[in-house]
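Re-run with default settings, no changes from the original entry. Doing this only to confirm the output is reproducible before filing.
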Amino acid sequence: MECGIFHTPYMRPGRKDKETFDYSLLLASAADKFGYRDFMVGEHGMQAWENIPNPELLIVAAAQITERMRFAPMAHIVPLHNPSTLAVQVGYTSQLLEDRYFLGVGAGSWENEAVLRGQPGDLSEAHPRLMEGLEVMDKVWRQEPFDFEGKYYKASRLDAQIDPGSVASHGSFKTREGEEYHLTADHSPHGGADGLEIAVTGLSKNSPSHRLAGERGWTPISFYGGSELLRSQWKTYSEACQSVGATAQGSKFKIARDVFVARTDEEAKEKAKNGAIGYAWKKYLMPVYQKYRILQGFIDDADHKIDIDDVDLDYLADNVWLCGSPETVIAKIEKTFELAGFRYGQIAVNTHDALDDPAPWVESLRLFATEVVPHIPVEGTHETVAVS
């Protein structure tokens, strides 16, 4: 099995942007040494707990201090951008990182971010803007002339058709043979428009994002919310793959989870409850997981069923988080395989704000990479190898 990082980043409100940035680099450096394959950075500009508005700034900086790990914005909220500008930004970053970059895209799920951009708070424009924006981005990457006018976006690419003096602020002048006035920069992705790996995240049953992944050969990512939700997403993805003559591969499926590993179950539970994960769940994630109806799925899978309003940190540590000794966490993961009916390829660890005391959190990342995932066989995945 592979391990990755899903860096939302769940920082405590009040952290300065530079604190978040420096802590992110610390985690990236450690994860690269431990053998993590992917470091995926969330994009949000309004949420105090999810406070990275430009993933590429962090990604490029982190790539300079790491050697092997791949990076991705996860995800660029396409409806919140001018798609032509985003296409150039993505292509440029892809060329800088080459094979160590892939792209995550999404429609967005926070009402306040849409309203800030003058879009409906009910997110009714989110998905159509996503699809139209992706169409524009693909056209930009192909480096060919086009003229596009859709419902939400308008864009064109000229083919050496700007005449000298045609802009009022320019003086009239003549071009000489051999001059390169009309040349435009190539900011298509490394490997071309068809060579860029694209990933999408899904939160719901029968997720349209996972259908899109299957139809287009993209990478599916799920915020795990219990086996029923995952089975539904796997079914949607598999059927979409079949519709285009492809075969669904569990090894491509990535799952985002809260993880904390220590030498013993008791130590792991105590440090998780009283540390970064416990604090984030008390202050932020409990209502988020209830809003998106994710928490109930964990209760349905648990041997001990309780009312959702009675869920506390002890219950979360035992039944929701991948929390415990390496042996316990391995057993919890194997149980999810059994309940879901397939073996997925990567667990991406949700990061949390351990800035004030990072040592236990970094040790948990190390144990997960070196003593958990190497003992979970999944056909088609990359081997996790730590730097000695």
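DSSP finds 13 helices and 13 strands in the chain. The CA atoms of residues 59 and 71 lie 6 Å apart.
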